[in-house]
Amino acid sequence: MSETIVIVSGASRGLGAALALAACRPGTLLVTLSRTEPALLAQHAREHQCAHRHYTVDLADPVATEAVAQGLFSELPGGARRYRLINNAGTVEPITPAATLDAAAVAHALHVNVAAAMLLTAALLSSAPSTADRRVLNISSGAGRRPMPGWSVYCATKAALDMYTRTVKLEQQGSGLRIAALAPGVIDTPMQAAIRATLPDAFPAVEDFKALHRSGQLAAPADVAARILDYLERDDFGQTELDDIRDY
Ligand SMILES: NC(=O)c1ccc[n+]([C@@H]2O[C@H](COP(=O)([O-])OP(=O)(O)OC[C@H]3O[C@@H](n4cnc5c(N)ncnc54)[C@H](OP(=O)(O)O)[C@@H]3O)[C@@H](O)[C@H]2O)c1
């Protein structure tokens, strides 16, 4: 029987892949969601006596996301004492001035960065027993708390995720549900490589991100993942609703 169920969205690369690997522990059932199946995770999970299920889903499609979210909870075994949902999947695109935004790009980012977290959290709230220790961690960004030209959509979606987190916390007061939105710092992932590849016309701060990379200031995904999983198990998790891993 799995004592702990850990659900990680966007576990095929970057921070999510590191979180999934680090979450592989005996007695855990790890559930991952992304468009691509995480490489080597199934074998790693077996080696660590961790059960693993992967759901292939495009989180930009809210109807598919809702169906998968509800389906995955209905397929979970009973009896778990701890539920951990890490809403990590995200996209920094579209990186472009606000005047050039188009419907498809805006809708895609809103669905991946905001709606998917809402729908997965809704499934947990309606399906995981309230007697269990239920924790939701939304991976936010400093960009949701500080505007950056060229990132109007990314900044707005992360700010929306922060406000969603605050609202659910208020709504769930007394229910035992704990929730927080965490900025993870600047991490050496494919997303950072994509940011460095943008043109200054689209993203004026691109040189700052290249400089951070050149001077070795990007954190290693495995280090950040280990710190995030420790953070998620803190006794005071959820008390600071908008948090930053660099403060720990
Ligand atoms: N890297 C940083 O410096 C940094 C800083 C602040 C905040 N963050 C946040 O940290 C989180 C992880 O970032 P990262 O740098 O690891 O990003 P990444 O390297 O681009 O990886 C993103 C992950 O999200 C998944 N994803 C993206 N679009 C998806 C879709 N439509 N459907 C399903 N899954 C999707 C991807 O899986 P598939 O492509 O296989 O679907 C992938 O596993 C994001 O929320 C990001 O905003 C990152």
Folded structure, characterized:
- Helix content is 42%, strand content 17%.
- With 248 residues, it is of the alpha/beta class.
- It has one domain (4-188, 219-247): 3-Layer(aba) Sandwich (Rossmann fold).
- It has a seven-stranded parallel β-sheet, with helices on both faces.
- The two termini are 33 Å apart.
- The structure holds NADP nicotinamide-adenine-dinucleotide phosphate (NAP).
- The site of NADP nicotinamide-adenine-dinucleotide phosphate (NAP) has 27 residues, from helix 1 and helix 6.
Write the layout of secondary structure elements.
Elements: E1 4-9, H1 14-23, E2 28-34, H2 41-47, E3 51-56, H3 62-74, E4 82-87, H4 103-127, E5 133-139, H5 152-171, E6 178-183, H6 190-196, H7 206-214, H8 221-232, E7 242-244
Parallel strand pairs: 1-2, 1-4, 2-3, 4-5, 5-6, 6-7
The structure holds NADP nicotinamide-adenine-dinucleotide phosphate.
How does the major sheet shape up?
A: 7 strands, parallel
What's the overall geometry?
globular
**What compounds sit in this structure?**
NADP nicotinamide-adenine-dinucleotide phosphate
Strand content: 15-25%
Supply the CATH architecture: 3-Layer(aba) Sandwich
Fraction of residues in helices? 40-55%
**Could you say how many structural domains there are in total?**
1
Taking all residues together, what is the mean pLDDT? Answer: 97
Radius of gyration: 17 Å
- Give a count of the beta strands, DSSP E runs of length 2 or more: 7
Give me the side-by-side strand order of the main sheet. 3-2-1-4-5-6-7
- Find the CATH superfamily: NAD(P)-binding Rossmann-like Domain
Pick out the low-confidence regions. none
> Could you say which structural class the secondary elements and strand pairing correspond to?
alpha/beta
Number of helices: 8
CATH fold assignment: Rossmann fold
